[in-house]
Each structure stands twice: as C-alpha cells, then as structure tokens.
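Hi V.,

You were right to ask for the full record rather than a summary. Here it is.
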Amino acid sequence: MILPLTAMNEPSITKVPRLVIGAPQGRSGKTTFTLGLLRAFARQGMAVQPFKKGPDYIDASWHTAAAGCTCRNLDSFFMGKQEICRSLSQQSLGKILSIIEGAMGLYDGLDLQGSSSTAEIAKVTRTPVLLVVDATRMTRSIAAMVMGYQHFDPEVHIVGVVLNKVARARHEKMAREAIEAFCNIPVVGAIPKDVNLTIPDRHLGLVTSGEMHETDKLLEYFADVICDHVDLNKVLTLAQSAPDLPQYEESQGLKFSKYAIKSIGLTPKIGVIKDASFSFYYPENIEALEELGADVVTINALVDSQLPADLDGLYIGGGFPEIFAAELEENITLRGEIKRAGEKGLPIYAECGGLMYLGRSIITPSQNFEMVGLLPLDTQMESKPQGHGYTIMEAKTDQTWFTGDTEIKGHEFHNSRIINLAPYVKFGLKVKRGHGIDGENDGICYKNVFATYNHIHALGCPEWAERMVRLATRYKQAKCAQIEKVAGQ
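Predicted structure:
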C-alpha cells in the first residue's frame, strides 16, 4: 500500500542577499547582463544561485551553465507566496547571493493589477530591483523613465540602474548624472553597444545552452564585458541590502516526503528522456519523483538503443524534437521499444515535445519524419505559435493521472499542431484557459499514457508526481505478481 504525502521539515534561511534583474521592456539586455553577472561572480569563486521569473526553460538552462548551479523558476501563477519564498530560501543555502532574472517589462503581467509580473515576484519576496535600461538615443530622458518606474508601485524597491547599449563616454556621463541626481540611486554599470552580446534565437526563444558548442566561450566573453563595465562590489552591496525574506501562511501541502514504498519492498524505476531534443524539465519535477521514492534513470533518445531494464514508468518532457527529428527517426530500435512498452501498459507521461514524439510522425516544411507511433496522430510544424501562455486545465473524471475536476495550472508554448487525430481518442483535460490540442481539450489518454501540450510544475501540481510514482509502483507490483505466478506453475 502506498501512503499519502506528508510535510517534511527542510532547512531554510531568511537572510538572503539577492537582487531582481528587471527592465522597462523585453529586449533591454536582461539576459545577457544576468549571464555575464552570474559567470563573473562564479569565476571569482563565489557561490551564486540563479532564478528565472516565469516558466522559461531556456533562459534557465543558460543560467545554470553560467553559474555552475542549477537555476530554479519562480512563478506566481503556479506557486503561492510561501512556495516562492521557500524555494528562494532553500536554494540559497550556502550561497553568497541569489540573482532573479525577470521577464518582459518590470510591471508587465496578466492583467491590470500586474499579476504574475516580475514586479510581483519582487514584492512577494521583498527583493530589491536592479533595472537594466536600453540607453539607445536617450540621455536625460532616462531619468524620467526610471523615476516613473520608481513611483509606479511604491512596494517595488528599485535600488540601482545598469545602462545598456551606451554609445560613447559623453552619452554615459549625461545619463549617469541625470539618474543619480533626479532618481537618487546609483548607476552601477554602463555597457557599450556590442553586437557580440547576443545569443542566437529560435522560434521558442533563445537556442538552448546545450546546443551551442562554444557556450562556455560566449559566457566568458559576457563576464569579461561585465567585469570591465559594471561595479561588482556595488552590485553585491545592493544585494546585501535586501531585507529578511517574509513569512507567509502555508497555502497548500506542497512539500514532498517519500511514500512508504520500501515497506512493501518496491522501488519503481522511472526513466526520463533527457538529451538535446528533450531538455525542458523543471528540476523540482525530477526531485519530486525521487523524493517520493522512485529510482530515476536518464535516457538519451538520440543514441540509446534500448530502454533501461525493469523500467516501471517513463517521463518525456518538452524540447525541440522537430530540430532533431532525423536523429530521432534513425533510432528505430528505441522507438520500437517505447511503443511496445506503452502497449503493454507502461505508465508514460509526455509533455509537448514528448507528445509529438509519441505520435506517428513530425511533419516539417521540408520532410516527414517517423516517430514512435504509439498515439494515433501526426504533428505538423507551423511558422507561428499555435499555443502560447499560461493555461488552466480541468481534469476529467475518466482518466487515471489526476483527480477528477482538479484545476491544473500550467503553460504552453508550441509551434506545432496535431493533425489526423483518430476520432476515438479520449482526452483527460478540459481547457479553461489556453489552447491545448484543439482549443477545448488536452491530455490524450491511451492505456497508461498521458500526453499533453500542457507543461506543469511540481510545486504547483504535486498530485502529478504522486500519481506518476503510484502508477509506476502498481506497474512494478503487477510485473512481480506475474513473475511469481509463472515461477509457481
């Protein structure tokens, strides 16, 4: 018997030197500045913890590479205030400071109140903001803009400015003097215009760090620029000015503790396909499976020819299977093993790219590529996003992965759409916000497979990890019972 989750005491701290890196708008240079800052501190031997506001996987992977420490996402759409502060506190243990990169403009959110904005994260965590401003074609006017951001929300504490894309020394001098005179906050850096301070783009955002052969060289260059043009001591001093983290009442029982799996002598083995084609995973999701007692093993769909022995569950995250479709198609042996395992009832949870992989084919503008063929559908790539943004799903009653009528918050971002879907397919989710598969439904259910465009975070949906481990354990129990039956004959 599997026992329910119970809360677990975990170490935490309230005094966390920290900064939010915000900007008036997207494309101001937040990410390159943050990456350079992280690498600059890290190569000085300082342990720095990166965070990314929002659901972004790709920026987070770059943060991890820059800091040498796993980046975590902070998102007020998924998580309650206590979960956000707990994550910030726990992950900052043993670190000199924590850096939270924002998204879009500082006050841009889902509604008039700025819900799920970078400013909301700054307020929830009471974290000072360092504002990165694109100084192109502005001098004194920058002070007026910064002053507006200072006074727009009195609860947001902007403590410093970094000027980006500065043309020349006179440009910097005029902007710096105006900000420090009228806004009464320091300019801690002025970064010159530099076409090399960029990361290649793709339709879902930046190219993932793991795909760039010269990632480390690029990060070192970013750090060199930051060291030359930003006062790191002032940045650290501003981070140390942050007040203690606030304490909020528990909103949900979101901490994980292990099921009593060992009491019945079973530890389910769950495979996670993680490689260049499938790289979109929140570390908390993997940790939740492990904390619940699962033995998590990694699979590379590009090179591994077989599934691990005695596998009891499979988790396939998102990524760019369309970019690596030829290599995925070429690995016929693994595709066949996954299909046979799914037909035999192996619990499989697939998100976005994983959904595409389990279908019959991926259709690009130039070619069709065969995939696993476990689900009766094809995926067609389009030039524009087919689903983009936060989602709210309602679990239907006739599926095994979520409690019926449960509201599930997530997000989607995909340039593909499902075509040639068999009419008999059963859906597990009703779309209340977002697009899903057809604007009304998401979560294709087939045997013990659940495949969806919706991405979820374990801190916002702990039931997912519980059900994954529960189904994997039952699958293992059934295998053991069958072996005993055969042995007794």
